[in-house]
Each structure stands twice: as structure tokens, then as C-alpha cells.
Amino acid sequence: MKFRYAMVCSSNQNRSMEAHALLKRQGFDVSSYGTGSHVKLPGPSLREPNVYEFGTPYKQMLDELRRKDPELYKRNGILPMLKRNVAVKLAPQRWQDNAADGSFDVVITFEEKVFDMVVEDLHNRDQVLKKCVLIINLEVKDNHEEAAAGARLALDLCQEIDATESWEDSIDDILNGFEKQHRRKLLYSISYY
Q: In Å, how far are 21, 39, 147, 164 from 111, measured between CA atoms?
């Protein structure tokens, strides 16, 4: 695989991690992040989410929720999701704190407000490398079924991009073809490191 990819959602739990896991299995150089101020997982009610700091290990969250209410968190898919996450990486990471991870060639976001935050963050960074980065938003609802479907679409898109010599020369054709084939509208922007 030629390019380095980042998958980004709000909490680095569901959409970005589903795509991260799938792309990793396919041999891509991929990382994942969230843009929120905290990591939020559903709780017993909408008013009672489980809130964690970025960097809290997925295993710690898994153990804690197993102790709190194993039936609830198994039924709503949180425990299986956290088990998957444990197998992919140690803990959720925040996009805005990722400068030490180096630069990416392509960033895929799964929500427009996340896309806006990534674009804004990149514009506010010192652009010393003059290295181009493509940011694409593929809108995906934050539930387990949609995350799985979104991950497959992200894989298709990344495979299309990776098949090119240079995405800069063919990105319009790639995105137009993807939109027609999958009937999904994509947003994209180009920034620099």
C-alpha cells in the first residue's frame, strides 16, 4: 500500500475503529482518531452516557462496563465493539493531539462536523512540510450496522485511491465514480502538513 490513511470520527470508538480494523486486515497503513473533547459511550439512558478521557485503554472501558451492567452493554453492542477495539489498538486517540504520529496522505471522516474540525485543525498547524493531504467526508450514522457498511465503503474508496500513482491527478474522477457507484455524496478538501 502506497499511502498512509487516518480514519476519524467523534470518539474513536465505532465508525473510525470499524474502518481501522477492516483496513488494517487488508494491509493498509492506517491509524484512527476522534475529534471530540471526551470519549462518550451510551449509558443506561441518554442523560447518563459513559464518559472517558482520550487515552483511557479500551480494555479498562470494557472491564468497567462489564462490571456495571453486562447484559445492557452486550445487548446494545458496546461490549463486542470494545472487544474489537482492544484487538486493534490500546486506546482512543484525539486527532488534535496527533502531531507526533506524523503526516497522513488521506484522512477519511464519517461526519461533517468531524470533517470541519479536521480541516480547521490542519489549517491551524504550521505547514512546514508542504506535503499535501486529502480529507474526505463519508457521512455514516453512528450505529453498529452503519459503521460496518461505512467501513466497507471506506475500504473501497481507499483501494481506489491506492490504485493510483498520485491521487492529486485523479481525485475528481475517483470521487465522481465512487459517488455514482454507491449513490453517496462525498465532501473533500485538500490541506497541507
A: 19, 16, 11, 26
Residue recorded with cell 442523560: 47
Q: How many angstroms separate the most distant Cα atoms in the chain?
A: 52
The pLDDT value recorded for residue 127 is: 85
Average pLDDT estimate for 3-26: 98
Q: Which of 79, 87, 73, 82 is nearest to 22 (CA)?
A: 87
State the CB neighbour count (10 A cutoff) for residue 35.
23
Q: Quote the pLDDT of residue 1.
A: 66
Exposure of 111 by Cβ count < 10 A (0-12 exposed, 13-18 middle, 19+ buried)?
A: buried
Half-sphere exposure of 81 (CA within 13 A, CB side): 26
Beta strands per DSSP E along 15-151: 29-34, 39-41, 50-52, 106-109, 132-138
Query: Which residues of 132-184 form beta strands (DSSP E)?
Result: 132-138
Beta carbons of 158 and 108 less than 8 angstroms apart: yes
Per the CB < 8 A criterion, the answer to whether 138 and 167 are in contact is no
What are the respective helix, strand and coil percentages of the chain, to the nearest 5? 50, 20, 35
> Which residues share a beta bridge with 41?
50
Q: Give the distance, in angstroms, between the CA of residue 138 and the centroid of all CA atoms in the same chain.
A: 10
User: DSSP state, 99?
Assistant: G
Global pTM value: 0.96
Q: How far apart are CA 112 and CA 117, in angstroms?
A: 9
